[in-house]
Amino acid sequence: MTIARATTSRRSFLGHSYSLVGVVAALVILAWTLVAILAPYVIPHSIGDIVDDDYFGPMRQGLWLGSDYLGRDMLSRVLMGARYTVGISLAAVSIACFSGVVLGMIAAVTGGWLDTCLSRFLDAMNSIPSKLFGLVVVAAVGSSIPVLILTLAVIYIPGAYRFARALAVNINTMDFITVARVRGESTVYLIGSEILPNIIRPVLADFGLRFVFIVLLLSGLSFLGLGLQPPLADWGALVRENIGGLPFAAPAVIVPSLAIASLTISVNLLIDNLPQKIRDRDA
Amino acid sequence: MKSGVLNLVLKRLGIAVITLLIVMFAVFFATSMLPGDTASILLGQAATPEAVAGLREAMHLNDPAILRFLLWLVGLLHGDLGTSYANEMPVATLIGGRLVNTMKLAGITTLLSVPLALTLGITAAMLRGSVYDRTVTILSIGVISVPEFMVATLAVLLFAVYLKWLPALSSVNEAHSLTDLVRIYAMPVITLTFVISAQMIRMTRAAVIETLSTPYVEMALLKGASRSRMVLRHALPNALGPIVNAVALSLSYLVGGVIIVETIFNYPGIAKLMVDAVATRDLPLIQSCAMIFCLGYLFLITAADIVAILSNPRLR
């Protein structure tokens, strides 16, 4: 009923109004988050069990999403894949945004040579294509979950830094910052209590966009066989191992692709449909 | 004021050179972090300690990393890219033909996607808010939100599986006639064109819409100019800088796209070479391929910035 009403009017919640698309997108994201948390308790078969005599089996009762290239249950593998895709991306984006935003605020508040050096260095980092960076690191140190999280985080720190610094520089010129400085407040207080509360909303929107980039990059790396290693499989790895089913249009290769698309498109749509007040850079 | 622009451009080029040095440094050190001793890996388990020591000496592995970095740089400047570990061929020979293949792929994609994306982007901006505009916007958001390999997968499903127009894999060596050639390049080029165009359409549309909201365009509207004259004569010449900037930036997405596309379609280009080199941990090959990609990327983003500087009338 709520949804039916939302088509005619934007619903109001916590003082903001949300569009229907945004609400649906938020629900999809919520659903995948729940799947990522609850996957081990709800999967019908163990991800390693061969349950079908046939490979690339079609959808049927009991095997709701068919079977993969070894005859394993695809539904279980996709549900567990959500855990890796969402988990690794979330960890990486948290590290990237936290470091980027803290560094960006410090650079804006301190200024001088620290700001110049940091900006130059991170801009240079930004001119290494992200997939290439991933390839080289994986070639150098091998692929494991901690390495993946750190690599993805390092790749997206420069972007988060640039965004947060640009916002913080604007806030930094405000009178209340000058007043706080004159009061003799420390840098920690300045960035934590004066700047952060004023940039937190656009930073959160940026967090979502960066999450999408990381999901795409992680899937791309896994698709190249450089991300998660078997027997673990995230959605990109699932597409890779079942790519042989493509000529028969097997659900095993289509479903993980759809899973990635549903997650990334939802996050993009949610951010596009956020109330202007939250999304705006200069809020 | 002329010197102001020149200064800005020179400054931007200087930054590009510094960036290039940092990038080279990063590529070199990331690849020398590899665990295990290169000399003993090369010689295998049966190698005597003397042989390993001899090879280490010959490969300058005992020298400090910074010296090896400088040696590598000097080699690069002389066009000496080193020797591949995996098959002992000079890296330059391995890369040569592959680079031409990749450039062909990138070139054809550019020729196709630039006119396509500009037409769609500009018309969408002109008809802002219409069904056409919304369709174009939703489609381009859709393509941007999914990984490149999924665009490729969908293209294979559509053109090779359902319509059976094109083969799913390419093999450049089997090209005997023009139709063969078209069939080989079609799938990789279609995929790349989708990926690149989506970015370009969005940026072009944004650039034109921004120009259309300026006061002088409103003035043109008020004095009774037709819609097409308003866009083509008044808005477009001023939006040209941002559009060229958008084109260069979007083309830099080729670097990432080509890695996925060459792998999925088994296209014998330099990205495929690099992915294979990563699998065999062939360091000199990885370093050289990475440098080529970084150079291309850096060239495109620097070009984009310089166009943005040159097209800003306030600096002229």
Automatic annotation (TrEMBL), chain A:
Alphabetized UniProt keyword annotations: Cell membrane, Membrane, Transmembrane, Transmembrane helix, Transport
GO cellular component entries: plasma membrane
CDD domains on file: TM_PBP2 (cd06261)
Gene3D superfamilies: MetI-like (1.10.3720.10)
A Pfam family matched in the record: BPD_transp_1
Membrane topology category: Multi-pass membrane protein
InterPro entries for this protein: BP-dependent_transpt_permease, MetI-like, MetI-like_sf
One Gene Ontology term from the biological process aspect of the record: transmembrane transport
Transmembrane stretches, start-end: 20-43, 84-113, 133-157, 207-228, 248-271
Top-level taxon: Bacteria
Chief location category: membrane
Protein location: Cell membrane
Record domain ABC transmembrane type-1: where: 82-271
Family in the record: Belongs to the binding-protein-dependent transport system permease family.
PANTHER family noted in UniProt: OLIGOPEPTIDE TRANSPORT SYSTEM PERMEASE PROTEIN APPC (PTHR43386), PEPTIDE ABC TRANSPORTER PERMEASE PROTEIN (PTHR43386:SF25)
Name under which the protein is recorded: Peptide/nickel transport system permease protein
TrEMBL record, chain B:
GO biological process: transmembrane transport
Location(s), subcellular: Cell membrane
SUPFAM superfamilies membership: MetI-like (SSF161098)
Domain named ABC transmembrane type-1: residues: 99-304
TM region positions: 12-34, 105-127, 139-162, 182-201, 239-265, 285-310
InterPro entries: BPD_transp_1_N, MetI-like, MetI-like_sf
Alphabetical UniProt keywords: Cell membrane, Membrane, Transmembrane, Transmembrane helix, Transport
Membrane topology per record: Multi-pass membrane protein
Family from the record: Belongs to the binding-protein-dependent transport system permease family.
Protein name (database record): Peptide/nickel transport system permease protein
Taxon lineage: Bacteria, Pseudomonadati, Pseudomonadota, Alphaproteobacteria, Hyphomicrobiales
